Amino acid sequence: MKEEMINLIIDNEHVQVPKGTTVLQAAKQAGIDIPTLCYLKEINEVGECRMCIVEIEGRRGFATSCVQKVEEGMVVHTNTPNVLEARRVVLDLIISNHKIDCLKCIRSGNCELQALARKFNIQDVEFPGEIIEHEIDDLSPSIVRDFDKCILCRRCVATCKNVQGIGALACVNRGFESCISTAGNNSLNDVNCTFCGQCIQNCPTGALHEKETIQEVWEKLKDPESYVVVQTAPAVRVALGEEFGMEIGTNVTGKMVTALKRLGFDKIFDTNTGADFTIMEEAHEFIERFKENENLPMITSCSPGWIRFIEMNYPDLLPHLSTCKSPHQMFGALIKSYFAKKEGIDPSKIYVVSVMPCIAKKFERQRPEMKVNSIPDVDNVITTRELARMIKQANIDFVKLEDSSFDNPMGEATGAGAIFGVTGGVMEAALRTAQDVLTGKDLENIHFEQVRGTEGIKKATITIDGKEIKVVAASGLANARTILEEIQSGKADYQFVEIMACPGGCIMGGGQPIKSSKIREEVDVKKLRGNALYTIDEKSQIRKSHENPILKTIYAEFLDQPGSYRAHKLLHTTYQRREKYRI
To answer: Based on the domain organization, do 236 and 370 belong to the same domain?
Structure first.
């Protein structure tokens, strides 16, 4: 059926768009920019902030373009003196109730409110009024909530509810008393928050941000008694450059390693190697379960936001989780055992820092299950953004840095480890190893295109050695809920399930560089970062985890084999039922 088209005029431009299009989207198609603040395409289209108002001929007052649908013959004006003045008043009123401490704000220079204030030349507040001060919520290990910087755009509310299916945040009270809060106005630490950080990614100001811990890293780097080791996740290297003005998806592995050396870390290792260990343990765990038809489907366990979600919402399905620790936790345990013994270093003197795209890993590393002999696997987790701040604080010109390589003896990784950072990558990497183990052959087909792509749910049937394996990869917790409901109801017949808390996987983690709503609408950030990881895989000399020579050495010298007693002690973990609300 042919789509009905609507003709209208926007700022003297004749525009034709499909019926149902909003004025905002029609203007965008015509190359006409309308400012927005609360708007998030397909997530938060509520017309709350009123920054996108326009004039429509024949109508009184202003129309909110993000919700106003186009009509045949409509004539729209987006930049009349009346519109510009009204937007300025709206912006002034928003700022008048905002904590203005831009020099100290973590989002200074990357704040959508600040950018609009500059665009509209707001230099002073014309309508100052009473400001209610709120207590900062910094009790969680991952997220800080500062309501004094909130502009009530409701992006966080919509993201938590519509994208992640959690609903930890809501707008409460009315009028001047309105605020974004949690159940019972409790800390995010004590409600059903999974610490995924997607609310941070969509917040236009500094009202939500990660709990920064770089000062502790600086102190350890200065401490002569500490041996400070850093490891970097696969998704970090394809996003870090964005913090220094480089194109989205640029692979900056070599520059990142050089920067870490200049910061003073004693050793720089690659978490991709930890991912290879995860694949070895996870693939063999799956094969054992598959052969015994026990606790299927097996569900991946490397995303801590996802783990917190299932512990709170579907504790009866915990036996389906792989017992494998996430890659950085595995690697931390090996650094403080195998590496420490090999180098003759007291494990208690080793301080492991993980640079992650994820803020939930700040929570994960504090879990009591993530210790071996009372020694934590990882001592500190900083995000991609925090690493960028450290590099800037050290006055390092990142773009001009030469490339360096990760340190030995634990610096070599495979292409399989690299694709861990994108949705479907964990499953594809595991299947590469599983098929070789099940067939006893070195198979050339290592691409599992069925589980690639940025879709929220990807289902496929893989045939290995004549046996069908039904798999599904889901990213985003709302999609995870869909899959778990299928499993719980008995409607699903999967054998292997990969779930990532963040839509698109780790490349879109809560700790990654924050892009404005306009950039994310214009550019497919997920695709660019994901393609960069697949390119790393394609260019890798070794693309199967079980062929990594470092792994072969460590298993031979230390771990014996996947699933051994020592491997379980160091590399595997347990889970627990959690209450949604501790109030």
So the answer is: yes
